[in-house]
Write a structure and sequence with these properties.
With 123 residues, this protein is of the alpha+beta class. It has 2 domains: 57 residues, 2,3-Dihydroxybiphenyl 1,2-Dioxygenase, domain 1 (Roll), CATH 3.10.180; 65 residues, Roll (2,3-Dihydroxybiphenyl 1,2-Dioxygenase, domain 1), CATH 3.10.180.10. Helices cover 20% and strands 36% of the residues. The protein contains 2 helices and 9 strands. Strands 1, 2, 3, 4, 5, 6, 7, 8 and 9 form a 9-stranded mixed β-sheet that branches. The longest helix is centred in the middle third of the chain and has 13 residues. It is globular and about 40 Å long. It starts with a strand and ends with a strand.
């Protein structure tokens, strides 16, 4: 169900150190370090990071990404979310800056949370 989540933090370098320490006993490690740019990704070392920290504006109070089985489902999610009153935060499309097959769509709910559906499969 959940693909990844992110938490908004005020100081990414400080939060990075905090999360590195608390995740160590769980076998979770820093996988992508963009602390100087305002983000970091943590995970189990395989695939993509499942937990992110960010201070990037516009991403919402919290971020939840749900796994979609295919790109058509991402499209349907977006249409359903907009139809239910969600606010566009990124229409369906490839996000190749994440990886070549990252196809996602983003909406904000009424409370400003950033909700995403994502498919990692090619076509």
């Amino acid at each position: 169900m959940l693909d990844h989540v992110s938490a908004k933090v005020s100081d990414v370098p400080a939060a990075k150190g905090f999360y590195e320490q608390l995740f160590a006993p769980l076998g979770v490690q820093l996988m992508m370090d963009g602390a100087e740019e305002g983000w970091c990704g943590f995970g189990t070392g395989s695939g993509i990071p499942q937990f992110w920290i960010t201070n990037t504006e516009g991403r919402g109070a919290a971020h939840f990404a749900f796994t979609a089985p295919d790109r058509a489902t991402v499209d349907a999610f977006y249409e359903a979310a907009i139809g239910a009153g969600g606010k566009d935060n990124g229409p369906p499309g490839l996000r190749s800056h994440y990886h070549a097959n990252y196809y996602g769509a983003f909406v904000h709910d009424a409370d400003g949370n950033n909700i995403e559906a994502v498919c990692h499969k090619p076509e």
